[in-house]
Design a protein that fits this description.
The protein is built from 13 helices and eight strands. The chain binds nicotinamide-adenine-dinucleotide (NAD).
Length: 314
């Protein structure tokens, strides 16, 4: 178990909303932590805020290799290949994780760079519609869920390090296999983005009168459509297979609802939707107990616990 100063240092690659928040949260718990960003403006802002940041990726990674730091890849999916190429060149043996919203695609790129032995994927289920360093806070991950992957061959020591970072940031950990993570987030994150974009379009098509009448349901239903489009593209396109499956399922739900409405009733949709929402509201975060990383069968047992909605806590 980490708490703070005795835990490994943290090197964050990409100081946007998520990476900048990881850097702040790691420092707030007393960890040694530094970051890299390609933009001098972002690095200047981070340094002005009192953080250790640089535009020199090689130096950041060499320092990580020298100090056995945990390296956190916090760039959008299209930039992951470039960043991992640098990791493979300058710090090929470090403990490595990421925060990218899709997990199978990242794992494939990690493997292509020969970095899978000490890689454990991560995905903090926290964010806002803002982006960039200035949008980050040390509190962003407080009480959030942070997925830590349990794929075949996962190194238990690195898994513990990544889970400790998530816990240090104030989150609880849900263990999941990468493919199962991608199928789950297609439903609860990527599909909501697609539906929010479609709903925003529907409101705009109603012109100024419709938008002028819009209140809570429109605001809440379209909130994530305010996200930078390129970030949404990276999430949805990077998880296309799982997203297409859940989108087809939802189109079928809408088609049936449409036919039933044409016959005069929304009853089936509203009863089923209300029940499903209640299930979400009543879910419990029961702690995972009796499993330690490295125990016999720990990978399958943690996956099972994650499937049951259980969480890894301190
Ligand atoms: P952001 O736009 O706030 O920050 C992205 C950072 O990556 C910036 O610092 C940018 O300079 C850097 N970057 C972009 N292209 C780069 C390149 N080619 N080389 C080097 N650096 C590059 O985005 P964010 O919201 O912090 O997202 C970062 C990651 O976190 C993404 O992979 C995203 O999927 C994931 N994520 C986002 C959210 C969210 O709600 N925003 C939630 C969980 C995970």
């Amino acid at each position: 178990m980490s708490t703070a100063a005795s835990a490994p240092p943290v090197c964050v690659l990409g100081l946007g909303l998520i990476g900048g928040s990881v850097l702040r949260a790691a420092v707030a718990t007393g960890r040694s932590a530094w970051g890299y960003n390609r933009s001098p403006q972002v690095v200047g802002a981070a340094v002005a805020d009192g953080f250790d940041a640089s535009t020199d990726l090689t130096a950041a990674l060499t320092r990580a290799a020298d100090t056995d730091a945990l390296v956190v890849v916090a760039v959008p999916m299209p930039a992951v290949d470039t960043v991992l190429a640098a990791v493979a060149e300058h710090a090929p043996h470090v403990a490595l994780t990421d925060v990218v919203s899709v997990k199978k695609e990242v794992a494939a790129v990690v493997t292509a760079h020969g970095l899978s032995a000490r890689f454990v994927g991560g995905h903090p289920m926290a964010g806002t519609a803002e982006s960039g360093w200035s949008a980050g806070t040390a509190e962003l991950f407080r009480d959030a869920v942070w997925v830590v992957t349990v794929d075949d061959g996962t190194d238990p020591g690195v898994w513990q390090q990544v889970a400790d970072l998530a816990l240090d940031c104030g989150s609880v950990v849900v263990p999941a296999e990468s493919g199962e993570h991608d199928a789950a987030v297609a439903r609860i994150s990527h599909l909501p983005h697609v539906l929010a974009e479609a709903l925003a379009l529907s409101g705009a098509a109603g012109g100024d009168l419709a938008l002028g009448l819009a209140a809570g349901s429109f605001r809440d239903g379209t909130r994530v459509a305010a996200t930078a489009p390129a970030l949404v593209d990276a999430m949805c396109e990077g998880n296309a297979t799982a997203l297409l499956a859940t989108l087809d399922e939802t189109l079928e739900v809408l088609r049936i609802a449409r036919d039933q409405l044409a016959d005069g009733s929304t009853r089936d949709l509203t009863r089923a939707g209300h029940k499903a929402r209640r299930r979400y509201e009543q879910r419990e975060r029961r702690p995972i107990t009796g499993i330690a990383p490295g125990d016999e069968g720990w990978i399958e047992r943690l996956r099972d616990a994650g499937r049951r909605g259980q969480v890894w806590t301190r």
